Amino acid sequence: MNLTTINIAVSGHTNTGKTTLIRTFMRTSIGEVGDSPNVTKKGEAYFYDGLQATFIDTPGFQQASAVAIYLDLQQENPDLKMPSAWESKVIYDRDAMNSIEASQVVLYVGDLNVVPDDSHKEELNIIKKIQPKVVGILNQYRKQSEVSDKEAINHRINLWKELFEAEGIEFVVFDAHWDNPVKINKIYDSIHKILEPEHQDLFSEGLEKFKNRQAEIRKESCSMLAECIKDIQEYEGVSFKKSLYRNEEQQEEAKNKITRELYDKSVGFMARVSALYQIAAEFPTSPKDEIKYKMKQLPNFSARVSVGSSTATMLGSGGAILGASIGAGITMILTGGLGIEAEVLSGALLGVQIGGVIGGFIGSFGVFLDDDDIIKIKLEPEEIEAIVTKGLAVIWGLSNNGYGRGRDLSTEEIKNLEDKIRLLQSKKPQINWLNETQINIANYCDEILESMENNE
What is the pLDDT of residues 172-198, one digit of tens each? Predict the structure, then answer.
């Protein structure tokens, strides 16, 4: 058979998150998702040209045990027909089996919210009779972690591990809503390993293109952050005469001025990187330069990546509210004619939720230099580095926010994310953030994000 695409069937119990998983792989809002059995009622194929693969979303099994018994009996008696009373009961199971038959490999999705039992074993037996090449995926880790402690989760993982190992199946723990992107690569590597040799070459070609493009988009986002930091480096601060800087209100005015100007630069970065990931997802084979061209074609994009003095009305009388008001600013930019869909908007707001690129410093912002009659306010290297940290968190949030997620990051997740970035920063040689070159900043950011992918 001369294949032009690898068919990957996604199978398992009903309501385990199969459609959500495909959405996250493809970063596209395919299929129908809901918290009820058999939302997917018929096998649907979705071609992902970014990988040269077709994902087949199968209905969940409902009567695996009965079907397994029937298949065993049919092996002894090929003419055996299923009783008509049972035909309607196994309609979803039959459709799932037909989809599996059309595949070169199956991803079996297990749900960590449930304990594996004989029904799951029967499902795997059915699948392996049709397509013996199976990779296991344990889904819903985050959801389970909200109601169970780590020891209980590890026990549940071990139960699934025993089942998969007994069936000779390699598996990956992967949460379709939010997980390290390198795990997607691990899943793809596991698929490649068990494919037939004639299929491996085709999948290798698509996989190499997929990984190279991931790196290309990451590097471009880092270039955008480096450009933002270069603008901030060149920012000269604010100067005031002592005679005009006597009371609290005038001090707040100085803080608000520097805040508004840096806010403008930071929001522009977030608007650009948000559009980058939106278009990269919408056009999964477009090269970087074509994506940048498409970004410029978005309605009013150039005007909306800069908000200028209009942010004054959102800042109120105190710069301390910037962390909250930045959300309003991003919403305005990304909904004001950019054409960004709701799923992408939630990804952009993820970056905003991380605390605002500069909102965390207000209150002790800048260094005050007393030069005779003039007081100057400017940024210190530590503050620029903190902006870099939050910018990296924005990129990570946008690049990892799968379309199936459906919820924002929790406060704890945000804190853990920033802590991981700071830890990686602490292991790198110190650089002078006041005058480091733009290309070195971009390379630094790319190395941090690459380390995050490889160390989780």
Answer: 988 765 566 667 888 999 999 999 998
Are residues 134 and 224 located together in one domain of the fold?
no
What is the model's pLDDT at position 230?
A: 93
Q: With contact defined as beta carbons under 8 Å apart, do 86 and 116 qualify?
A: no
Q: Are residues 285 and 183 in the same domain?
A: no
Residues 114-130: tens digit of each pLDDT: 899 998 999 999 999 99
Residues 60, 94: contact at Cβ < 8 Å?
no
Q: For residue 439, what pLDDT is reported? A: 97
Run of H or E residues at 136: strand 134-139
Model confidence, pTM: 0.73
Which residue type does 430 have?
Q
Please give the backbone phi and psi of residue 199, each rounded to the nearest 5 degrees, phi first. -90, -25
Cβ atoms of 206 and 434 closer than 8 Å: no
Please indicate, yes or no, if residue 207 is contained in any of the structural domains. no
Residue entry with tokens 């930091």: 229
Query: In the prediction, which pLDDT does 162 show?
Result: 96
Residue range(s) defining the domain that contains residue 133: 6-195
Mean pLDDT of 131-150: 79
Q: Is residue 147 domain-shared with residue 276, that is, in the same domain?
A: no
Asked whether residue 166 is assigned to any structural domain, the reply reads yes
- Asked whether residue 208 is domain-assigned, the answer is no
